[in-house]
Amino acid sequence: MNIVLVNPPNCGRSIPEEEYGITSLKMIFRGEPLALSVLAGNLAGHEVRIVDLKAEPEGMEKLAADGGPDLVGFTAVTCEANTVIRLAGEIKKRFAGKSPIVVVGGHHASCDPAYFNREGIDYIVMGLGKLSFRLLVDDLAAGRTPAIPGVVRVRQGGVFSPSLRKYSEADLVDELPPRYDLVEAHRDKYVMSGVGGKVGFVVTAFGCTHCCAFCSIPSLTDGRYLGHSAEAILRDIDLLGDIPLIRFVDANTFGDRAAARMLATRIIELSLGKKFVADVRADTVVADPDLLRLWHEAGLSAVVIGFEEIDDGRLDRMNKRSSLAKNLTALSILAEIGIRVIGDFIISPDYDREDFERLGRFIDSSPIALPIPSILTPIPGTPLFRQLQQEITLTDLDYYTFSNAVLPTRLAPKEFYTLYSDLMKQLHHHIKKS
Ligand code: SF4
């Protein structure tokens, strides 16, 4: 089959910009579409291309190559869902003679698959799709009717009842690497601001066993944590050649501490000479500082930690299973080791002026090198969404960029966004200082 995998363009919308002329809060997503390279890695025997519309906004024209695609696969996070539906419709019209099959996967398809049960889309792949997407392609190429757990045939008007997949290590297809070569032309555009220049993405594990109320990650594997072997991870790092900075893109890289220890030991033995950035939980740092020391020796230069809040009550309501005390301890351990910290914070729509100022003071006095505050957003399919669904006032998913308030704000919206923008400016000064 002639298969084109499409990474949608930057397309989120911004209330602060549209309503109040505050342009500094619009989210721009950068980085290589690793999820698509991973899928492509398990499509041997087919003609596969990746069109990255974030790196190449005019890339849709490439779909016409080789007589047009037989199958187009999209990935999408929530704020990209409507754009993907629109692009799917355009593809169906443009290549009407060829009737390409359109498949959607990724975060939003995993959390809220029913959203894609509409015209222009043929199949939805939920969760970790490296194996199930391959099985789907095989069935379609052979003219069989697919019956694959985790893959849904779109049937508008009918009852939407996806058959769920029991994810296991087999879904990782560990032995087949991502097709990094398919995005090589854009490599210079894949940079990580605030940490370093050119960066390569590597996945070490999927899913998470925690269940923070706002998070969509557990739905990718139905709450399981599935890790690649050390050899597969080293192979992928090697495939990225001389790129000096490797970003592990798992949401919880050290979720299996024994495996993380083994990988760091192998990297040290091999003297790879790379720098690494990984997401870790504060409680992992506190429980196992020696693991972080070992990783620092292996080249870990920065970690991303979801601190989320500076108040235990709010952390509890998010089911974060952490505390301010733990977060502070983690910060001092990392400072002592010499690992930089990128800190995620979540601004609740019920923030008042004092809450913004308190967060600003906390971050300014902390050793966090790169603070990233975003607005609490109940992503459909998450526990937070189920909890707050009735209160949501902004349902257009184009605005689900984590920089818009989709719930009512305690402050007047203009004051809320102005304080958010002021906080971001203050944080830029903090970044320059640190
Ligand atoms: S926020 Fe992090 S720790 Fe919590 S569920 Fe998501 S990935 Fe797991």
Describe the structure.
By secondary structure, the chain is of the alpha/beta class. The protein folds into two domains: 2-163, Cobalamin-binding domain (Rossmann fold), CATH 3.40.50.280; 190-433, TIM Barrel (Alpha-Beta Barrel), CATH 3.20.20. Helices cover 33% and strands 17% of the residues. Strands 7-8-11-12-13-14-15 form a seven-stranded mixed sheet. Helix 3 links the parallel strand 3 and strand 4 (101-105). Helix 6 packs across helix 7 (257-270) and helix 7 packs parallel to helix 9 (289-298). It is globular and about 60 Å long. It binds iron/sulfur cluster (SF4). Iron/sulfur cluster is lined by residues 208, 210-212, 215, 217-218, 251-252, 281, 306.
Share of β-strand residues: 15-25%
Major beta sheet summary: 7 strands, mixed
Bound ions, cofactors and other small molecules, one mention each? iron/sulfur cluster
Widest beta sheet: strand line-up: 7-8-11-12-13-14-15
Shape: globular
CATH fold group of the largest domain: TIM Barrel
CATH class of the largest domain: Alpha Beta
Task: Enumerate how many helices there are, as a single number.
Answer: 14
Task: Assign the CATH superfamily of the largest domain.
Answer: Aldolase class I
Uncertain runs with pLDDT below 50, 5 residues or more?
A: none
Q: How many runs of DSSP E, i.e. beta strands?
A: 15
SSE order: EHHEEHEHEHEEEEEHEHEHHEHHEHEHH
Q: Give average pLDDT, whole number.
A: 94
At CATH's second level, what is the architecture of the largest domain? Alpha-Beta Barrel
